Automatic annotation (TrEMBL):
This is APCDD1 domain-containing protein. Residues 1-28 form the signal peptide. Keywords: Signal.
Length: 220
């Protein structure tokens, strides 16, 4: 005969586990609003694509609530033709101003000349490539070849999450990176982004010179 005591203990144990685990899940999903200093839309010049040297990408970033949005416009150097777009969405897990002219007690490189430096952490959610034309599909297939991925048959959108493209690895879904953003007048630079290295045990920044994002007059 089985005692009824274990049966009475089981619901109590389940309740205890629920109480203990809920805060952990809640912390894992916590996001923060982007500080006002990041407001506006920021864009780079056309950046070289290492594994496709005939092409470049003009990267635009803007912050909405707790979201960091990115759109990279893929172009041909010779024809100045838009071939496709890579869109990415990341959630801000933390964002804090660590140095600014008003908060720093003494002049420092990060707090002079109207500059502010922020420590941020963000989680990658989506990264998608969409060809914009027939030539864009041809470009996408060059991209796929460089990334050892299936070829495009049409202009459909495809995820790049976790894709290895020669020496560049796109971060997988849920990957969280610590970064630093410096705002100086109408310019913004990341320490890492968009060259985030998602390889475990290594610095999250790849060996690239951080591009400069220039503030645009238009607002999203």
């Amino acid at each position: 005969m089985i005692s009824g005591r274990p049966a009475r203990l089981l619901p109590a144990l389940l309740l205890l586990l629920t109480v203990l685990l809920l805060p952990v899940a809640s912390r894992a999903q916590t996001t923060v609003q982007a500080p006002p200093v990041l407001s506006g839309t920021w864009e780079t010049d056309c950046l070289a694509i290492d594994f496709l040297p005939a092409y470049c990408a003009k990267v635009r970033v803007w912050f909405t609530g707790d979201t960091m949005n990115t759109q990279a416009t893929l172009m041909s150097y010779e024809q100045d033709q838009v071939l496709g777009t890579i869109t990415s969405l990341a959630r801000l897990r933390s964002a804090a101003v660590v140095a600014s002219p008003s908060s720093s007690p003494s002049p420092t490189p990060a707090a002079t000349g109207g500059r502010a430096t922020l420590s941020v952490r963000y989680a990658i959610e989506t990264t998608d490539l969409t060809p914009q034309s027939a030539d864009g599909v041809l470009f996408a297939n060059l991209f796929a070849l460089a990334c050892n991925a299936p070829s495009w048959q049409s202009g459909s959108t495809r995820s790049l999450l976790g894709l290895q493209c020669r020496d560049f690895l796109f971060a997988p879904a849920g990957f969280e990176a610590d970064d630093r953003i410096t705002v100086s007048g109408s310019d913004l630079t990341f320490r890492c982004y968009p060259f985030v290295n998602p390889v475990e045990g290594q610095d999250t920044c790849s060996a690239h010179t951080p591009p400069v994002f220039h503030r645009l007059d238009s607002r999203r």
